[in-house]
């Protein structure tokens, strides 16, 4: 069916905007019967106009399809209403829960989030931060505490509010919401030691800062228990397959570990599934422990013992600190969040 230009034009609000033509603030003002400046204030500084007028302008903006020009507004208010967030990956639910926590918290304001994925690469993180700063973001949420020297300089000169998450930095850029990864791993390993396990292997993806910190925590617990000679580390890919292959390799060798601490539930579940195929009994032959307490941890049989990281709460707390800093003008407070060992059937 061929559409007539006259028919289309007649269906547009007030018959003023043509197809392909972006509506302007003046169109909103004309539709609402107010001045240009009143329309601008109603959409950008609604406290400066009567509520009845503000509502009239909002309705007119919807009718003509007007979208506030965030760039233009930021030039006037020095606020973009955008919070930049950089996470290593969104391939599983580990960091997505933190993103959700931040998003849900900021939804109570007019602020939105712009997400970048660093791939655990400090150089990529630096590139993303430069892009975000160029977009005049109001605040920045960074996953982790290991940043390039150029990144630290860039942030210090930008004056942007920053919240580092998932870690407790010794030299914070600004605020942080996190926990000690080394202490968490030490506590998890000590839990296994208290259960009577002695040959405990640490399995993890390689070349990740938090993995190294957790390795140090594992080693610390083993040394304190007099098990230094039984320290064993196995590196693998951060996937179900990686966990399965690491598990098969370990249980096929000698001496076989009596417990394995996996740096991530994905690895642990991969091992759990491979154990069934190999007819290795969990936990009678080998105990396994995961990390993060993702949804799947409680869905396997036996259920997975793991460490619960408050992933959603980390994002929520970061959002609250940003709101306090940007909206309320508070100085903000760094926060240490609590993790919890969840004992289930695999240990």
Can you offer a commentary on this structure?
There is one protein chain. By secondary structure, the protein is an alpha/beta fold. It folds into 3 domains: 7-68, 434 Repressor (Amino-terminal Domain) (Orthogonal Bundle), CATH 1.10.260; 79-179 and 312-337, Rossmann fold (3-Layer(aba) Sandwich), CATH 3.40.50.2300; 181-308, Rossmann fold (3-Layer(aba) Sandwich). Helices cover 45% and strands 14% of the residues. It has 13 helices and 12 strands. It has a 6-stranded parallel beta sheet. A 4-stranded parallel beta sheet has the order 7-6-8-9, with helices on both faces. Strand 3 (139-143), helix 8 and strand 4 form a beta-alpha-beta unit. Helix 2 crosses helix 3, helix 6 (93-106) runs parallel beside helix 13 (311-326) and helix 7 packs parallel to helix 8 (149-158). The longest helix is centred in the middle third of the chain and has 16 residues, at 209-224. Mean pLDDT is 89; it is low at 1-20.
Which features does this protein show?
Rossmann fold; disordered N terminus; 347 residues; 6-stranded parallel β-sheet; 434 Repressor (Amino-terminal Domain); single chain; 3 domains
